[in-house]
Amino acid sequence: MSTSSDRPRGRFPANLAAPGAAPAVGTARKPAEPLRPQRLLAEAVRDARRLAPPSGLGLDNPAMRQRMVERLRQDGVRCEAVLQAMLTVPRHGFVDSALAAQAYEDTSLPIGLGQTISKPSVVARMIEWLFLGQSARQAGHLGRVLEIGTGCGYQTALLAAMARQVVSMERLQPLHELARRQLAAHHTSHIHLLHGDGMLGHPPRAPYDSIVAAAGGEEVPAAWLNQLAVGGRLVAPARAQDGRGQVLVIVDRTEQGYLRTTGETVQFVPLKSGAC
Ligand code: SAH
Asked: What is Dmax (Cα atoms) for the chain?
């Protein structure tokens, strides 16, 4: 399990508002290159032609996932629960078979309707940050999780391996149904997939110990803050304070109020209101 002493390497300067203060934006040191969890379909298709699994290794071979996890370790991911989950969940089963050869590269891939499955390194870092929240640190698991942006369901499957319950919301019906099919083979009894506007959260199952979003809006919606349990942590992309690009935002809810940290620059697909 991760502890505060094994935070992801130097990427996320702590920048906390005073306890009890309203959520406030801090200044963040920017890495030279923004993280790009998404990328263009044309690039992915071009790479699909070029890349193939190392000779002798089929995609079902656990060695494929081991290589990915080793790279994540080298990149500073320390949380064993995250690494174990990534060893067991077959990412290639969540992407189109034409792109499956790239499933264990550190790259985002198109999943249809202009959306993408996020890069493994970004998924790992976001879940690792969730694990450093107070409740998760104490419990050793993510508790009850609200995920916004189910997409193809890969991150949902990872979260399910580390949580008591996962409520995952997707605004696009075809992707909601895709995730339902993909996740059928996993332990789904504690996964609740919902088709709807995740900006509103899901009050009937609130409060949530962990909230994570795979799409970024102007601000963290108030509904998510309201539905975060005391001791819980939220990790989501939102517009940077200077108005240029997105940053990861971490919000901890304490007895005294909300503590907000801003982190590295990212590029997620837009958080959109409504469902269709
Ligand atoms: N974790 C997903 C990422 C998918 S991309 C994966 O690994 O596949 C982000 C997703 O957020 C898209 O599917 C998009 O449709 C969805 N999304 C954007 N705004 C949303 C909203 N308000 N409510 C629910 N889902 C939303």
From this structure: 57
